[in-house]
Amino acid sequence: MAAGSGRGEQGRREGADAQAVGYWKANRRLQLTLLSVWAVFGFLLSILLANPLNEIVIGGFPLGFWFAQQGSIVVFVILIFIYAVTMDRVDHEYGVQEEELGAARRRLERRAQRRTTGETPLGPEEGDAR
Q: For residue 46, is pLDDT > 70?
């Protein structure tokens, strides 16, 4: 073994550790932000501010009722989508993205092109059944 190889390995490990800390810090920050938004909609608007919001009527229903019954669920689904899209960007930023998703996207694009043009750009894909 070379004399300096231990230090190089330690430097790479420290760099990977710093990258992992940064990745999880970004993940936690996003989670806390989205949970805070959900808490505002699910708790504050639908419970604590229900009476003032009930003075506003939309579609025949008081706004406080709408937030309590539908709003927090709709906001939760939107936050899930935002989390998925944002974490995909964070994964790419830190180089931990899932490569299989790219292969699945390419397969879908090939199938769509095959349907529209009738030709395959790169030949048949493994596992593609007609």
A: yes
The domain tally of the chain equals: 1
pLDDT digits over 48-78, tens only? 888 888 898 888 888 888 777 777 788 889 9
Helix or strand run (H / E) with residue 58: strand 57-58
Is the predicted pLDDT of residue 130 greater than 50, yes or no? Answer: no
DSSP 95: T
Question: Does 125 reside within a domain?
Answer: no
Residue 110 lies in domain: 7-117
Q: Classify residue 85 by burial, with Cβ atoms within 10 Å: 0-12, 13-18, 19+.
A: exposed
| Sign (positive or negative) of CA dihedral 24, 25, 30, 33 | positive
Q: What is the DSSP string of 16-54?
A: HHHHHHHHHHHHHHHHHHHHHHHHIIIIIIIIITHHHHT
